[in-house]
Every structure is written in structure tokens, then in C-alpha cells.
Write a structure and sequence with these properties.
single chain; 0% strand; mainly alpha
């Protein structure tokens, strides 16, 4: 059984990654924040009695389900009535800035030249844009495997598919990203 401190520490450790993953999926920071908060609350309310080792996979599954629920609700809302705010040109920029969310790792950002900083920021924005363009299942597999650092079995459990499907989705995502970035002159 996870103690309150263990649960709190776990949630603190995953909040930023969960938010970024959800922003990639829903492409709306406010909605992503709501989805992540709802997922955290659901984990705390329903699964706090589980051992701490089970929390990461439980949370990833809850987050995936909450994201899918958000899409379902959006589809219903959009089919019933047209959201008039879509026509508002002066709405906020709504762009997720990856560089604002990066923390300076031991002063690395301050040690580089302005040209290197600009070049790195352009590369990160290009990578972010290409990840956002991946099909949803490929994006989810890619982010779980390489962003969340889950192994194939954990990713399959979270996504509710076979390990072979995870490998296929990840392979296709990596090849699509590499090809798209190569066409832009970016080689990693």
C-alpha cells in the first residue's frame, strides 16, 4: 500500500512529463492540464491502496483513458453545436512552447552561444512539430517508449495492445520522424 508521501512523490515526479504528453495529444494546454489533474485525482481516489511499484503503469493507463474520454467528449460537443469561440481570431496564441518548459540542466543553456541557442531551439521546434504530426497511436507509443522510458511490455499494457503492435508503432514513428527531419536538413 502506498503511503500518502509515496503517492505525492510519485505524482510530483510524473506531472511535467504527463502534461507534455497530453499537450501533444490534445493540442490544448488548458484541456491537457484538466486531463492530467483528473487522472491524478482518479489515481489518488481509486488506487492509493496499491503498492508504489504499480502506480506508474496505473497512472499511464488512467491518463490514456482520460485522454481518449476527452476526445470522445469533444466529438460529441462538436457534433451537437458549433463552438463560436473557434471563430474568434483574437483568442490566445495557444502554442505550447517546449523551450519554456525545459529546465536548465546544470547551466547548459547559459553556457552556449546565442547562435547555438537559436539553432537548438529551431531544431527542438521542428522535432516537436513532427511528433505532433504523427498518427495518434504512433505518437502515443513513441512518447511512452522514448519520453516516458517505459519498456515494450509496459507500453503495451498502457496502450491496451500487443507488444508487437508497440514495436510496429514505434518503428513507424521513428522512421517517419527521421525521414521528415532529414528533409528539413536535420540529422541527429
Amino acid at each position: 500500500m502506498a503511503s500518502d508521501k509515496e503517492l505525492s512523490d510519485f505524482l510530483k515526479s510524473v506531472e511535467k512529463r504527463a502534461f507534455k504528453r497530453t499537450v501533444y495529444a490534445v493540442r490544448d494546454e488548458d484541456a491537457a492540464l484538466d486531463v492530467v489533474q483528473d487522472s491524478m485525482i482518479r489515481l489518488a481516489e481509486k488506487y492509493a491502496d496499491r503498492p508504489p511499484a504499480e502506480l506508474p503503469l496505473l497512472f499511464q493507463r488512467i491518463l490514456s483513458n482520460a485522454t481518449m474520454d476527452w476526445f470522445r467528449r469533444q466529438k460529441v460537443r462538436n457534433s451537437v453545436l458549433k463552438n463560436m469561440s473557434d471563430f474568434d481570431v483574437d483568442a490566445g496564441d495557444g502554442d505550447f512552447d517546449l523551450l519554456e518548459s525545459l529546465e536548465s540542466a546544470e547551466g547548459m543553456l547559459g553556457a552556449e552561444s546565442a547562435a547555438d541557442t537559436v539553432s537548438r531551439s529551431q531544431i527542438l521546434l521542428a522535432i516537436e512539430a513532427q511528433v505532433a504530426e504523427l498518427p495518434p497511436r504512433q505518437r502515443e507509443a513513441f512518447l511512452l517508449r522514448y519520453w516516458e522510458e517505459h519498456d515494450v511490455a509496459e507500453t503495451a499494457s498502457v496502450m491496451g495492445c500487443s507488444e508487437g503492435s508497440v514495436k510496429t508503432h514505434c518503428s513507424r514513428a521513428v522512421h517517419a520522424l527521421a525521414k521528415a527531419l532529414r528533409t528539413k536538413g536535420i540529422t541527429l
